[in-house]
Amino acid sequence: MRGWVVPPPKTPIKSSAELRKEREKKVRWLIRDGYLKSERIRDAMLKVRREDFIPIDYKDYAYREVPLPLPGTEATISCPHSYPLFYEPLGLDKGHKFLEVGLGSGYGTALAREIVGSDGLVVCIEIDPLTFEFGRKNLENAGYDDIVLIKGDGGIGYLEMSPYDRISVTAACDKIPPPLIEQLRTGGRVIAPVVEGRIQELVLLEKSDKGVKQKVICRVLYVSLRGRYGMGEKPLRRASPFCL
Question: Is 78 a catalytic residue?
């Protein structure tokens, strides 16, 4: 399986009420299928209007389990299930200082801001200038004005605001970039798609005073990380995550 067929662009016709019902239905589906367990993540997914973070020609597809294209190189908004797929194993919660590598549409960043609450902090880094500007505008329009947005190489992290309680990398890498592990607080967790041979595995790393330990959550499929710790000349795969 190499991904999904992206639906054709079209003029949106669904009302806010129709999309709200689809959002509520999607959350029920995520709970039923075991992706969504945390009350804070559930509440965030009910509150944040995913349709506001998608290009207008794809707005009506907001709650389909397909990736949708965004401005920028190989940029997509991931399937709805991918957000609890990452945030649940991380144990993302109230009060956390959270670093996200890959702003994308800004949707996941908005979810994270709702999850960590006013006592927490969200820092997000995006390397693609077109994607960065799209996500920044979406967050601004949605009223999220206290998220720290950095245009730059996410693989090197953002030392100025470290250490972080939780880190999420939303692009595939050969290994979790060492600077991100260094910027992780003792007791913290980082999650990322890691390439093993011809497959990608979603890997959760936990840092303790005795070192680090890793475990594989499931197989996934993501575009490649760019920058210093990127995938070099390996071909990008235009996709979003799936569990096998």
Answer: yes
62, two tokens: 């907001």
Residues 6 or more apart from 243 whose CB is under 8 A from it?
85, 218, 219, 220
Query: Encoding tokens for residue 119?
Result: 């006592």
pTM for this entry: 0.91
Residue from 78, 82, 224, 240 carrying the catalytic annotation: 78
144: left (phi over 0), alpha (psi -120 to 50) or beta: beta
Which residues is 213 bridged to in the sheet? 206
pLDDT tens digit string along 122-165? 999 999 999 999 999 999 999 999 999 999 999 999 999 999 99
Domains in the chain and their CATH numbers?
16-220 (3.40.50.150)
Instruction: Give the CA angle between residues 230, 2, 81 to the nearest 5°.
Output: 80
The label of the residue with tokens 């999607």 reads 26
